[in-house]
Fold this sequence. Notes:
Blueprint: E1 2-7, H1 12-17, E2 21-26, E3 35-45, E4 48-51, E5 58-61, E6 67-74, E7 80-85, E8 90-94, E9 97-98, E10 109-112, E11 117-123, E12 129-133, E13 138-143, E14 180-192, E15 199-205, E16 216-218, E17 223-230, E18 236-240, E19 245-250, E20 253-261, E21 263-266, E22 271-277, E23 283-288, H2 291-295, E24 299-304
Amino acid sequence: TGTYWYHSHQHSLEEVKRGLYGAFVVTAGPEETNALDLTLIAHRLPGASLLGASDIVEQAKVAPGTQVRLRLVNSDNTTRRFALAGTPFQVVAIDGGDLYRPAQLRNVSLAIAAGGRYDLSFTMPQAPVSLGLRGGRLGLALSPDGKAPLSEVDFGPSLDPADYGASHAGGVAPGARFARSFSMDIGRKLGFYAGGFRLGRQWTVNGRTYPRMPMLAVDRGELVKISFRNHSGADHPMHLHGHHMLVIARDGRPVRTPWLVDTLDLRPGDHYEVAFRAANPGLWMLHCHDLAHAAQGFMTHLVYSGVSTPFLVGDDTPNAPE
């Protein structure tokens, strides 16, 4: 269960920008009678910014006492910041993974990585509630009569998931033994793109450039750890297909509240450790979800032993899955 989205992965930088994307929500059962469940995708089309399907402030009528869930999706290539005014709220899920005993929040901003999702939950009060999106006059205004305008939203300090909610082990016990451990040191250096004639500063993993990026090979059932270090000077929302990663450490220290992600934002200088169970055999992309970076070769794969494909990519084929 959870909030997801889908999009084109063929020339994705251009095709997603032009609108080949949508929400994909999996629920546990029928909706509650007194509930409002809205999915809102923040997106930039050429020449227009959208929240959901609108390029203006949306208004909605919501009765006081209604349980509201807002599913926020960032389909852009950069981090987008949201904030909620008019009521305390909880972040109940990130990237489709439920959070453990999330606390009530006020006056914080939610920095959602490119490709990431946050689910917010609150009970509709008597007064209006506003959801704001930084960087434009976009938002959602909820009120008992449906006529309230978007109010001023305070974009306070960003919520830190590593210190939010109740402390727990998250399914990986301290001192757990990993069958595989990988390091992914992200950098940039002068080189040729894909072995061709385009000389420039290329994204690297462990000093190597596309298409010779190091791949992660696993066996089914293994407990796997990845250590990400960002030395590149740019943000990189690292997205692993087919799996959730449990964030277990930051800057060499265990986090107080491990949380599940499939897209982990690495800012310059960040060092994170994540863990996952290799329980979904396949050939899975692991790439930067800034699709401009992916188009420049910032991608690799998680591969399971014994799994192969007859499909080919490269200049000699019509397949360009960045």
